[in-house]
Amino acid sequence: MSKYLLHVITIFLLLISYYKDSKKTRMALKKAWKAFENILPEFLGVIMLVGILLSLVNPEFISSIVGEKSGWLGVILSAIVGAVTLIPGFVAFPTAALLLKSGAGYMQIGAFISTLMMVGVVTAPVEIKYFGKKLTVARNIMAFFFSFLVAYIIGKVVGGI
Amino acid sequence: MKLLKRYRFFLITVIVTVIITIVNQSFGIRAMGVVGYSFMEMIVIIPPIFILLGLLDIWIPREIMMKYMGEDSGVKGIILAILIGSAAAGPLYGAFPVAAVFMKKGVKFTNVLIFIGAWSTTKIPMFLFEMTSLGAGFAITRLLVNIPGIIIIAYVLSTLISTDEIKEIYKNAENL
């Protein structure tokens, strides 16, 4: 249900907008389409890239590198896997929970989840189109290193190391 | 020809996928499964985001956006950027077009970056899901580290980049 909340809100606002000014609403839709069409090639490319990467990086592969005893090397590898993949949250979180049950460390999972969400290597083409190369690279590198801090604190607080 | 150039990146990925499928069928099938899934996600989640930003572009005057999130918006602007980013749904690549409209409307650069950070990592629907799968300790710790983290990252990024470069990015946003 909550999955469609955004749709309900959008339709509601669209109706209000149309009621108030149909011409402006048509203009808004035209702008929406133009913005979408503009970025569509990058979107499609990113989606394909995610498919290719996820076919190579699967849960078995991830679990082989994130064991509790894998230490900082495991943290670094998990961070890299998180950075280069793009897994939707509702697949990533249960997978992470499963990995924890099967012996993965909190620090490693923390690094994986953090870079997964904050660092987007495959989405970089989209980001570059809006923010340019320099900022995209800088943001992703900073988010990558920040994830180690997140991992360390999660390891301390949750994993109790 | 122009179309071909625009879709070059996409075409390369298609060719790579085809090659993978020829070399190893099970990898290829898995890749296509993920592509199918992501494609459906795009079709379902992306249209409302773009329609909303179209409406935002048309209905919300620049002055209002500047007042609440512009240069002089202070803490209010930061909080709004975090809240709007956190209320979002959808993958990170959906955040960039919204950021472009924000820039068009004169939102302060650090607030745009904070919004991107919040969208990437403190989304409320995802937070609830994270709590149920990985436990409250994990999710809350991550959230508490992330909120100051994304603000600090935003400010550091804005110092790394010159005013001219920021102007260039804003100008670019006008044409997107």
Q: Count up the helices of chain A.
A: 7
- Largest sheet features of chain B: none
Head-to-tail CA distance between termini of chain A: 39 Å
Shape of chain A: elongated
- Most strands sheet of chain A: none
**Arithmetic mean pLDDT of chain B:** 91
What structural class is derived from the secondary structure elements of chain A?
mainly alpha
Amino- and carboxy-terminal Cα gap of chain B:
21 Å
Strand content of chain B: under 5%
What gross morphology of chain B would you assign? globular
Helix content of chain B: over 70%
String of helices and strands of chain B: HHHHHHHHHH
As residue ranges, the low-confidence spans of chain A are none
Biggest interface and residues each: A-B, 77 and 80 residues
Task: Describe how the helices and strands are arranged.
The complex is a heterodimer of chains A (161) and B (176).
Chain A: H1 5-20, H2 22-56, H3 59-65, H4 71-84, H5 89-101, H6 106-118, H7 124-157
Chain B: H1 2-6, H2 8-23, H3 25-59, H4 62-69, H5 74-86, H6 95-104, H7 109-121, H8 124-134, H9 136-160, H10 163-174
Helix pairs in contact in B: 2-3, 3-6, 5-7, 6-7, 6-10, 7-9, 8-9
Can you offer a commentary on this structure?
The complex is a heterodimer of chains A (161) and B (176). By secondary structure, chain A is mainly alpha-helical. Chain A has two domains: 1-40; 57-157, no CATH class. Helix content of chain A is 82%, strand content 0%. Chain A has seven helices and no strands. Chain A starts with a helix and ends with a helix. By secondary structure, chain B is mostly helical. Chain B has two domains: 1-46; 60-174, no CATH class. Helix content of chain B is 84%, strand content 0%. Chain B has helices at 2-6, 8-23, 25-59, 62-69, 74-86, 95-104, 109-121, 124-134, 136-160, 163-174. In chain B, α5 packs parallel to α7 and α6 (95-104) packs antiparallel against α7. Chain B starts with a helix and ends with a helix. The model of chain B has no long low-confidence stretch (mean pLDDT 91). Chains A and B meet through α1, α2, α5, α6 and α7 of A and α2, α3, α6, α7 and α8 of B.
